[in-house]
Amino acid sequence: xxxxxxxxxxxxxxxxxxxxxxxxxxxxxxATSIGALTEAMNIKPPSLYAAFGDKKALxxxxxxxxxxxxxxxxxxxLDEEPGVRAGIARMLREAAAAYTDPALxxxxxxxxxxxxxxxxxxxxAERLRDLxxxxxxxxxxxxxxxVAAGELPADTDVPVLASYLAAVIQGMSQRARDGASARELxxxxxxxxxxxxxxxxxxxxxxxx
Length: 209
Fold this sequence. Notes:
It comes from Actinoalloteichus fjordicus. The chain is mainly alpha-helical. Helix content is about 60%, strand content about 0%.
């Protein structure tokens, strides 16, 4: 029987992508070496390059997949809830749970994945910065719609409120990486809701609990 031409892939590409996601999430882009990736995936470097391209291409695919899975809760919460305060409260509540999920690395890959990158990898840091800014734009769009619909006061400073929410989300990610519990982050989320206009915090309306 004639030998089959070419070298068939001897690993599960999706499983390998999951492994890479965890490594980048735990250690960041720059601290995750090709050697660490291939060892964890149990493959040789040529197989990694053949399946994913170079390290930056692999990271880009990891980030894209991450945003479609673990990272989709933010804008989904704002889109699915009928009221903007309910959407914000849900987003913050789900961030508290997601960032401290014991089955996953703490925090958010998009927020922390390119921390401390050297100038040689400035394009990686820029890519993640652009994604964070895209989330900020999504926050602004939802808030502007809420103002137009009368859900928020007409004098709401939308850019400042959107930036505040982005800062809270990023801070929750970092606190999770520093060991904060889900309970602590949930309390933080409830406190953050007091800065969102239009709610009666004394009666508990619109909180993140």
